[in-house]
Automatic annotation (TrEMBL):
It comes from Tepidibacter formicigenes DSM 15518. Ferredoxins are iron-sulfur proteins that transfer electrons in a wide variety of metabolic reactions. This is Ferredoxin. Its cofactor is [4Fe-4S] cluster. Keywords: 4Fe-4S, Electron transport, Iron, Iron-sulfur, Metal-binding, Repeat, Transport. GO terms for molecular function: 4 iron, 4 sulfur cluster binding; electron transfer activity; metal ion binding. The lineage of its organism: Bacteria, Bacillati, Bacillota, Clostridia, Peptostreptococcales.
Amino acid sequence: MAYKINDACISCGACEPECPVNAISAGDDKYVIDADTCIDCGACAGVCPVDAPQPE
Ligand code: SF4
Ligand code: SF4
């Protein structure tokens, strides 16, 4: 299991510093989560203003 950022992402960057394992980085048109690094904690979803990170 890992979280995935959907197309609702507005690239605000709020989630990136909240991730305890640094799984989030800026992508071309939205932020992205490295599924192999994500520990499914949900911290990113908690700070996202548009609910873009969703559990897969
Ligand atoms: S669910 Fe947790 S570990 Fe996974 S990307 Fe979000 S903040 Fe990082
Ligand atoms: S907090 Fe939400 S909108 Fe902001 S960069 Fe992260 S996923 Fe995208």
